[in-house]
């Protein structure tokens, strides 16, 4: 589904990604861990097509298509979704209206007719249950006045509505208490299937107690330096990132 080959990228004159390689297949969950400043969120932003980053070398293939020159809406229509580390507030735009517009843009891109009102409302009701999102939030402006946990749950709700093929979660666990973390993780787990894939970016092993990955990658200095199964995250939790740095120095 996703194949990133030797990706180098910078912002202004600062090189951040320095030869990143990763391959994600349908049905898989990959976790990327690493210390602050190593390029994890930069990678997520570049995948989504955020402005300000320059790719200087390498390829990003999504279902066989090179996406480096595509704008964010094109990538979204192909089936990519990014859940932000810090979801933004959009005053004056209700979640309901936003989601209806987003779904219809996706349908338009695929040559489909706009969704019927009844089907849309039924879909909203079904998907909001996944993350225990009160219907009151659906009529309010997007994320305005929401707590951190409510914003993250709203992100997962949006993901459920759009049914993407590749879901990129950029530190979704950041700032969540244990109850919000459980709700968000349960939402993600309910959406996992053999036709989609997840890329979970996190600092902490605790999220991976709830969303169990098939592969764990450790990112350091702009590239993936170690890959394993969930036991690698447990080892990292025990030994810390200095262990990785030490191993790299020795090897």
3D architecture notes:
The chain has helices spanning 40-48, 72-78, 95-109, 117-130, 135-139, 148-162, 178-191, 230-239, 241-250; strands spanning 2-11, 14-24, 29-33, 54-62, 65-66, 80-83, 90-94, 141-142, 166-170, 197-201, 215-220, 223-228. The two termini are 31 Å apart. The model has no long low-confidence stretch (mean pLDDT 88). It is of the alpha/beta class and 251 residues long. The chain has a domain at 2-88 and 164-250: P-loop containing nucleotide triphosphate hydrolases (Rossmann fold).
Keywords for this structure?
about 250 residues, alpha/beta, Rossmann fold, 6-stranded mixed sheet, 4-stranded antiparallel sheet
The major beta sheet can be summarized as: 6 strands, mixed
Q: Rg, please?
A: 18 Å
DSSP strand tally: 12
CATH topology of the domain at 2-88 and 164-250: Rossmann fold
Brief sketch in words of this structure:
The chain is an alpha/beta fold and 251 residues long.
Summarize the helices and strands and which ones pair or pack.
Blueprint (H helix, E strand, L loop, with lengths): L1 E10 L2 E11 L4 E5 L6 H9 L5 E9 L2 E2 L5 H7 L1 E4 L6 E5 H15 L7 H14 L4 H5 L1 E2 L5 H15 L3 E5 L7 H14 L5 E5 L13 E6 L2 E6 L1 H10 L1 H10 L1
Parallel strand pairs: 3-10, 3-11, 6-9, 9-10
Antiparallel strand pairs: 1-2, 1-4, 4-5, 7-8, 11-12
Helix pairs in contact: 6-7
């Amino acid at each position: 589904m996703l194949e990133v080959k030797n990706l180098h990228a910078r912002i202004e004159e600062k090189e951040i990604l320095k030869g990143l390689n990763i391959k994600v297949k349908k049905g898989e969950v990959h976790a990327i861990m690493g210390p602050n400043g190593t390029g994890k969120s930069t990678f997520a932003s570049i995948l989504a097509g955020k402005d300000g980053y320059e790719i200087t070398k390498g390829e990003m293939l999504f279902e066989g298509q090179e996406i480096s020159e595509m704008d964010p809406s094109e990538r979204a229509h192909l089936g990519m979704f990014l859940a932000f580390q810090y979801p933004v507030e959009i005053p004056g735009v209700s979640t309901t209206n936003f989601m209806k517009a987003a779904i219809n843009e996706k349908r338009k891109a695929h040559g489909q007719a706009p969704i019927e009102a009844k089907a849309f409302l039924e879909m909203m009701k079904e998907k909001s249950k996944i993350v225990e999102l009160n219907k009151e939030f659906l009529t309010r402006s997007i994320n305005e006045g929401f707590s951190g946990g409510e914003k993250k749950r709203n992100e997962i709700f949006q993901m459920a509505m759009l049914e993407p093929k590749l879901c990129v979660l950029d530190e979704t666990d950041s700032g969540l208490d244990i109850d919000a973390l459980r709700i968000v993780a349960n939402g993600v787990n309910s959406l996992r299937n053999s036709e989609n894939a997840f890329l979970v970016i996190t600092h902490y092993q605790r999220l991976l107690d709830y969303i169990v990955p098939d592969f764990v990658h450790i990112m350091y200095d702009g590239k993936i330096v170690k890959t394993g199964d969930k036991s690698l995250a447990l080892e990292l939790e025990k030994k810390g990132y200095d262990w990785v740095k030490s191993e790299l120095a020795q090897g």
